[in-house]
Amino acid sequence: MENYWQEKKEWLNKLTLEDAKFIFEQAEKSYNYTIETAKGIYERSNGLLTLVSGVLIGLVAYAIGKWKDTPHLDSLLFTAIVGIFYFLIVGLMFVLQGLTPSEYLLPGTNPKVYFDKAFFHKDIADDERILRFYKVEIINYQERIEQNTKKNDYRWNIYVLCLRAIFFSPIVMGIAFAIATIAS
Questions:
Q1: Residues 136 and 109: beta-carbon distance below 8 Å
Q2: What's the whole-number average pLDDT of the chain?
Q3: For this UniProt entry, which segments traverse the membrane (predicted)?
Q4: What is the domain partition of the chain in residue ranges?
C-alpha cells in the first residue's frame, strides 16, 4: 500500500481542500458499505444457524426416538446419524465461522496521530493543516476499506459454501440411505 501512495504522491500534492473533502466523503461511503455488508453477512449466517440447528435437533430427536422403539441400526437410523454428523460439520465449519466475531478496522484515526510535528511545523500554514489531515484520512480510509473488503469476501465465501453444503444435504442423506439399504 505504501508503494501505491508513493506513486500517487504527485496527485496527492495537487489536491485542493475541496478535492480532499470530496474524496473523503466518497471514501466514507465506501467504508460504510463494507460495514453494512458485514452486518448483512452476519444476519444471513445467523439465519443459517437457525436452519442448521433446527435440522440437527430434528435429526437427533428422530434418532433417539427410532433407537428407543427398535434398538438396532436400520437404514433410517443410519441415515439420521449420517445427517447428524453432516449437519454438525456444516454448522461447525461454515455457519459458526460466519458468526464468529471478526475485527473490522474502525473509522477514524486516533487524535494523537494528528498532534505531530508533521502537522504543526512552523513552515505549515494553518489553513494547509486541514488539507493534510484530510490526506491522512483518505490514505487510512483506503487501507480500512481494503482490509474490511478482504474480510467480507472471505466470510461471503464461507456463507456460499454453507449454502452449497445445505443444498447437497439431501443427496448425501440419500446416498447414506442407499448404502445402508444395500448393506442390510
A1: yes
A2: 86
A3: 47-64, 76-96, 158-183
A4: 21-183
Predicted model pTM:
0.78
**Residue 31, C-beta contacts closer than 8 angstroms, at least 6 positions apart:** 107, 141, 144, 145, 148
* Residue recorded with cell 474480510: 151
Residue 57 cell numbers, joined: 435437533
Give the whole-angstrom CA distance, residue 109 versus residue 155: 26
CB 65 within 8 A of CB 171: no
Give alpha helix (H) positions in 15-125. 17-69, 75-90, 96-99, 117-120
Alpha carbon distance 107, 105 (integer Å): 7
Sign of the Cα pseudo-torsion (169, 173, 176, 182, in order): negative
Q: Could you tell me if 129 and 120 are in contact, meaning their C-beta atoms sit under 8 angstroms apart?
A: yes
66 SS3 class: helix
At what angle are helices 126-183 and 75-90 packed, to 10 degrees?
170
Pairwise CA distance, residues 56 & 70, whole Å? 21
